[in-house]
Each structure stands twice: as structure tokens, then as C-alpha cells.
Specification:
It is a single chain. The protein is an alpha/beta fold. It has two domains: 227 residues, inorganic pyrophosphatase (n-terminal core) (Alpha-Beta Complex), CATH 3.90.1640; 122 residues, Diaminopimelate Epimerase, Chain A, domain 1 (Roll), CATH 3.10.310. The chain is built from twelve helices and twelve strands. The longest helix has 16 residues. The two termini are 29 Å apart. The protein binds manganese (II) ion (MN). Manganese (II) ion binds next to loops.
Length: 355
Amino acid sequence: MLTSLSNAPIADTPMTYTTNTTMTELARDIRAARRVLVTTHQKPDGDAMGSVLAVMRACAAVGVEASGWVVDPCEGNLRAFEGATKVEHVNPRAPTLPVGEFDLAIVVDTGAWAQLEVLTPWLKANASRVIGFDHHARGDDVAARRIVDMNCGSCTALLVQLVDALGVDLSYGADARGRNSIAEALYMGLATDTGWFRFPNARAAEYALASRLLAAGVDKNAMYQQLEQSSRAERVQLQARALMSMEMLQGGRFVFMTLRASDFTETGALLEETAGIVNIPMEISCVRASVLVVEDTAAGIIKLSFRSKPADASGAFVDVNELAARFGGGGHVHAAGGKQKGSLEEVAARIRAAL
Ligand SMILES: [Mn+2]
């Protein structure tokens, strides 16, 4: 639970977070299963939800019963993609654990205990049956067997290999309008994790996968509108608050923004509506990295988001994965998150010192 969080950085464990099995073996085990649980990190983003939905649909395609189990908050924009794929949404303040017998538990888009707090007791009790698919640099021994590929722009870019290994058609699951297919779920993760193919992690392989998914019937324009142009006005007002708080540090190399509890109450915006705000200052020429600090009074923690630009002409860049690791988190070289206890002022001072 959240009370187990500490301010200490994640200790470097001797375990190496790397692939220790093959896609063929995991595909075979999924096919042999009768019932599987599919889950991801708390507060799922587009890649997490896309990964859960893609795996659930691929399981359905091979006759395996899949239960989706996700710890909220989860944006309505993302839930809109569930269609007929029924995902159980768990309230982190009043959590429940999965009920019934599962032959396998499939953890996607994370391998870190810190991101699976609600489900940790259940996963530990079922340790031998847990398999994982991830594209993050850091992780723990959540999944006994796992495929980890940091070179995938999204977890769904890794999962397309699983779908292929299962021999399932990418258009499986499409409804009468051509929506809610496996391809759509894969595209949701791919498009959102690569910032709609603008971020450094959008490379030839990611564009090639996008091409394949579009050919499989993905309606990218409808998806863009649903994912990026369906905000409430309160969300844009919250963005304005964050931008008003903007401080330029180190001669403008770093941008530092804060959102206080009062910013949420006064705008009526929700905590999950902070998504994407940390990217906005990257539009500024001199900025190399951006930090957003959010006061989450309900959870009693301070949430941190970090972003950085790819290497400049001199080859220099800010490794925000390393930075986030010093603040109870992690992620990728150019996109990471963390959480801290303490007051907003205390945490802000710690981060300013680290920058
Ligand atoms: Mn991801």
C-alpha cells in the first residue's frame, strides 16, 4: 500500500532486469492455460491499457479466458477503448484482490513492485505463475519469466510479437465499426508512448508497426480525437495553472512546475488530468528537461514527472530515468516518474538541489 513508500531511492538489486525466456515459450503457455489474469501498473496510461486490452483480446482469440484487472485512476479517454473487453477497475483506496483460480498472471508495461502495490500480496502468493512483458529499464522480480526489451517504443510494440507467436490476426475483436480490435489496442500504446510518433523512441520499427496496424484497420483519426481531443475544459485550465508556476532553472536548461491541491479544487480538475502537462515546456528552445511536481493530498504523497529531450548537437542529454531513481521512481531515459513523501515545499527543494 502507499504507506510502504519511502523517500529512499530504489536500491540497485543484484538481479538483472532482462529477458529470461522466449516469446515462443510464453505463447505456448498462454495457449495451454484455461484462465489468465492480465494486469499492469497502477494509474494506467495509454500503453498500459492498450497492452492489457491487446493481451486480453489475443487470449480470447485462442480460446483462453482472460480477466483484466487494473488499479485506477484511469482516464475515461482510455476506458472508452474497452468496448466489449471487460476490465475490472479497482479503487486503490478500497482495493480488492482477484478472486478465483488463474493458470497464469500476465503483467504488462511494468516489472516494478512499486507500481503494483495493491496486487503485490496476490502476485507474491502466485509467484511461479507470473509472466511479464515490459520495455522499461528497471524492474524487480515480479515475473518469474519475462521478456524485457527497452528498444521497443511501447509495451504494445513488444506485445505484437506475442500476438504473432499466438498466430492471431491483428484485426481480431473488431466490432461492426471496425473498432476495438487487437490492432487498435496495440496502436493506442504505440501512439501514446511515442507522443504520436514524435518522441525519440519512435524509430523505424515503430513506424513499421504503425503501418501494419493501419493496414489492419486502425482508424487513427478517430483514435486521435478520442485520446487527445476529448478533454474537459477543467483540464486545460489546470494546464494554465501549471504553466503559470513555471520556473526556469540552470539558465533555462530545466523547467520546474508545481501543481498544488488548491489548483485542483479551484479549477475542478482531477488528478489524472495532469497527464501530458510535463511535455508542454519542451516546446521552449533552451529547455533540455522538464519536471512537474504534483501534490496528491488524497494519497498523502507528492508525485513527480520528468521528461527530457534527445541528445543535442554536442551529444548531451539529461537521463531522467537516473534522476527519477533518486526520487523513488524510474522509467525511461527521456520519460520517467517518481513519488515522495513530505510537503510540496520540501520535495521541491530536494529536486531543485538535485537539478
Ligand atoms: Mn509503456
